[in-house]
Amino acid sequence: MRVDFHTHIYPLELPDFSEKYDNKKWPVLQQKCSCGADIMVSGKVFREVTDQVWDPKKRIEDMKKEGVDMQVISPVPVTFSYWAPVEQALELAQFQNDFIAGTVNEYPDYFIGLGTVPMQDADAAIEEMRRCKELGLAGIEIGTNVNGENLDAAYLLPFFKAAEELEMPLFIHPWETMAQDRTPRHNFLYTIGMPSETALAGASLIWSGIMEKCPNLKVCLAHGGGSFPYILPRLDQGWEVWPHLRLTEHPPSHYAKNFYFDSLVYDKDNLAFLIERFGHDKIIMGSDYPFLLREIDPGKVIDDSPDLPSEVKKAILGENALQFLNYQKSGVGK
């Protein structure tokens, strides 16, 4: 049973919010042909995509070719739109959540859905998270910051407590990354900015005490946690030498053990490091389908790790994702 936890989907029929609300900052999908389109932001091409990003049947074809039984589908992060008025962002979130839930209901043997919520308003985010649960979505994907505020912003604590209470796991994905003025060349935004952004998000959740206050909250960090796993000893050292800054009873590494990480690290030695530091039960196979930096075939880094026992590979390739998402169903992946 192979479950690809990290995949993104974009509704082909998503309304043109840039026209509706007279603001070009909204993402717009401009179809070029039956199998290709551009995601446009502020009048510029943000990303070129293929029909893999919107067509469930095409995705299922790819899954069968690449040996994947189920995909966990989540929104493309550019659609988070935390910068927008909350009523407008909620409208976009609800359209996407309805689309993802509809896709899951149409193809329940192949897809599990994650929703999105307007994080710029905690009350609205909580209400939409409740609706996502009613729709049958298994969790929520959120960004690494909200309009430049880290995830330890005081107003967000009720959201994290609600996610814990509702048993809605959170998938934290980088967006609106730091140092954007220094990362355009060489596409460093994707290879350096995103991993650094994810590290800041994970560190903020821990250092602020959110993970201490929400001990049963399930959080998975994208892209193997970015640079977070490798700077964790430095975070611990900071906690040791700056006691006046401590907000938690234990050092960061104590709470980091509660995090999950997708396996998108491309390298078997990096995967071995993640497993050694956090345990194989906290690693979830994810490929970033259908984008250019994705792993092909999904789970390749796991398959290429000869020292991993078969039961460990089995857990990482599928069982851990289902456990993280509190998902139970028989007869899937037909």
UniProtKB/TrEMBL annotation:
Primary enzyme class: lyase
Entry annotated with the keyword Glycosyltransferase: no
GO molecular function, one term: aminocarboxymuconate-semialdehyde decarboxylase activity
One GO CC term on file: cytosol
Pathway: Secondary metabolite metabolism; quinolate metabolism
Alphabetical UniProt keywords: Decarboxylase, Lyase, Metal-binding, Zinc
Entry's Gene Ontology BP terms: secondary metabolic process
Lineage top rank: taxon: Bacteria
Signal peptide from the UniProt entry: none
UniProt similarity note: Belongs to the metallo-dependent hydrolases superfamily. ACMSD family.
Assembly mode: Monomer.
Protein name: 2-amino-3-carboxymuconate-6-semialdehyde decarboxylase
Source organism of this protein record: Lysinibacillus odysseyi 34hs-1 = NBRC 100172
Organismal lineage: Bacteria, Bacillati, Bacillota, Bacilli, Bacillales
